[in-house]
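A quick aside before the break. I want you to see a complete sequence-to-structure record at least once, exactly as it would be stored in a machine-readable document. Don't worry about memorizing anything.
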Amino acid sequence: MVKTDGDMYYPGLGEWLVGAKPGKKKSGSVTFGESAFNEAVAGKKLKTSAKVLSIQSNQVPELTDELAEELGYEGGVEGMKANLQGELESSRDQMVRNQVRANLLQALIAANEFDVPQGMIEHQLRVLVEELRMQQAYRGVDPKSVHFNDSQIADLRMRSEFAVKGGLILDFVSNNESIEVTDADLEAKYQELADERGQSVEAIRGYFVKENSVEDLRARLLEESTLDWLLENSKLVDAPSGPVAEEKPAKKAKAAPKEKAKKAEGKVETSLLKGTVGAVKEALATGDYDGQLDALLAAEEAGKSRKGVLQAIKSRQ
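That is the input. The structure line, written in tokens, reads:
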């Protein structure tokens, strides 16, 4: 099934198919968008052939109590709205909490500079690459066909180093504060996953046992519990104001990237967006373009509109 109004996995394919008739074949070349969830085709121009089996369209039905009940909601339309609102709020709260956890971990790593063995980073990199390939396999793509260019590998290596440092810090905190994950915690997680997927607890537990992933799940829960402990015991502190910086002139050097960005505000370097997603992320991380983020965002939205670049710019904002 391919969406003609912007397919997430094969962007560019839908537009190419427009005009084809059911039962007919079409061949040619398709340039796939760099934002493709399917990384095997992202940004590539490939020979493509397709046969249209059928053409369908989405139709929005009238919202009635009968439809709500048919969709499995109790209490008719009002019950459906209340249920959906609860799901949205829960999802929002979880998303915010995950973002706060990530910000906290980033602050911890920045505040505790240390080198980690290259071997640990390379191991984490292999794990991450394999995980990304398996994600593609779940989408029907041959994992052997998934390859990463130098820029993507550099980005993945940075993420791997971040993961290793974060894991070591959290491991230290959990040991120091005697934070543990009990069997009851594991069972609660099994139940949560079972409820989400509509499966039995036995099926979920059996899956983790079969895949020898119980200890991996326990380690992940321990990291989450440790981050929660850190959140509960952390204090929000305002950043130093201007006068403090005047008392300590040495700190003015840290403002250099911002000053450089201000000088560049008059001239927007949209040529930056011609690079790969990884290259754009690395350039943004320097802070040299902080004064041009709004313009860069507008240019990317009007151009390639790559998901990775849009997220990177918004995150920097």
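Two observations worth writing down. Confidence is low (pLDDT under 50) at residues 242-267. The first strand starts at residue 25 and ends at 31. We'll return to this after the break.
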